[in-house]
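Researcher: Structure prediction, please.
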Amino acid sequence: VEAWEETLRLTNLTYWKEGTFVNLERSLRFGAEVGGHFVSGHVDGLAEIINQKSEGDAVRFFLKVPTRITPFIVNKGSVALNGTSLTVNCVENNIFDVLIIRHTLEVTTWGQAKVGDHVNLEIDQLA
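Model: Predicted structure follows.
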């Protein structure tokens, strides 16, 4: 596998080690139902998990983003974090939160996410 400087600068690839799990999904096919927002896989930058709080079977993650990205993160808008389409709940300055339900925690890498992790962030192309 090869990665160029731009990829290394914008993604969390430099944090990976052998055995790191990633989220993969088949590409959208023409005519298929869209169940979230459009995710291209073009990472805009990193978000850092700064806090997490269990809420029943779900977990609320609080993430900090670079100020250059904050204009594109809006309440009830969409983001892709590590390739997972999610809804932004609340934004305050350069911190926002997402609530990840049990099913998503079980079938994605979010079940292993922890404070201090850096996740790939893709802003909503329609934002």
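Model: The mean pLDDT is 85.
Researcher: Thanks, that helps.
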